[in-house]
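Input (GMC family oxidoreductase):
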Amino acid sequence: MDADIVIIGSGMGGATLAASLAPSGRRILILERGEPLRPSPLDRDVDAIFGKGVFRPDEAWLDGQDRPFNPGNYYCVGGNSKFYGAALIRYRATDFDSDHWPINYDALERDYQSAESLYQVHGDASVDPTEPLHSGAYPHPPVCDEPDMATLRDRLKRAGLHPSSIPLGVDVSKWLAAGQTTWDAYPNTCGAKMDAETCGLAQALNHKNVILRTGSSVDRLKSDPNGRVTAAVLDSGEVVTAPLFVVAAGAVQTAALLLRSANDNCPTGLANRSDQVGRNFMNHNCSAVLALHPLRRNRSIYQKTLMLNDFYQGTNSRPPLGNVQMLGKITGPILAATTWMPRWLAQMVAARSFDFYAMSEDLPNPASRVTLKNGQIKLDWQRSNWEVHVQLVKELKAVLRRVGFPIVLSRAFDRRTPSHQCGTARMGNNPALSVVNSHCRSHDHTNLFIVDASVLPTSAAVNPALTIAALALRAGRHITETEFAA
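Output:
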């Protein structure tokens, strides 16, 4: 055997699981297709990041009409978390009150607490009325508002809303020392964002029994007639063997790997007796909402400290609408690189804009799915719940006008923008309707686990990173108790 455990992918799920299992002393091999990000002049180069997309993969997927597009996913050590906005928010307790979830919030609370400790979250659980019960405090106080954001917070409070601090995994001083920008969508090469590499992987690699291999893309998994996964076959043809395998390649790539691994024993793909692998793909419905006052400037550098959950839970008169949080500060060059605006106009708008991120839940739908066409990934996203998102944007605009912004603009994110992809290997108690059980173990293969966003049965309406980490810690505890007990 090449290892006791092989983990495929070093993003939030794979890195966190590795950190959980590392103290066991078992030989853990992490296979990552990408390489570590190295510091470069492009790290804070707006035109390179937002205009030219230099960090995006040289890869094409097909959409539902077989049209090729370049996905916004990243392949590097730490995965997409290297570019994330570092918002580490718990799902609300009501998000688990669904027939789709095999566990409730209480079953995951201890793991949320542990994940917040591992990822050094800055937050305050006392302000947001939708915040679920915490058994302990955040490791650090919330990231401070910049002066113009503090004024915005006060305006929202006076309007009867409940602005709260976004739980963030970021060392602001260290980030700004490397460049005067926000961190949202920028690569973390200075170690200031608490991402999968900086925290989870770093902790795992403190143990000599954990090895990370980069440039190691897995083509398929092999299984025997008894239903055990026996090996991972790399693109190079190398075969890696172990008694236990974990897939954590992300919602799209995990589904593609399992489908690509079809064999005589599993003709529709590994872990796919239920025909659910690749189905129920979800991607949050999101819009950027810019609030402006022609005579008022926003001098914030990072901006991303505030969120609103006043629209999150339903009432007698309306359904749950979703979460609103600040985007990382949009600058003139970012606006010019991503819209039709000439640079001079973009500079004027961005200098006066307060930039919000409106996010609504995408609902599970078996027809929304990842498949393979002649070996190429096909992503047929069947967007759902759009009317609810339109209502969220409408109500947010009304609130922003009420608090003193006469001009409010919005723009929906298109289908090519990955807004928290999830759901393609959903967890559940019924093997006929799900891919893994509540501990992320495959129903079909007892020595196969999946620990990334693909296992989420619903998308909720908040960033999923912390929930992915918490589920990985829960899976790690289960593996330790059941596989290592002897």
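The mean pLDDT is 95.
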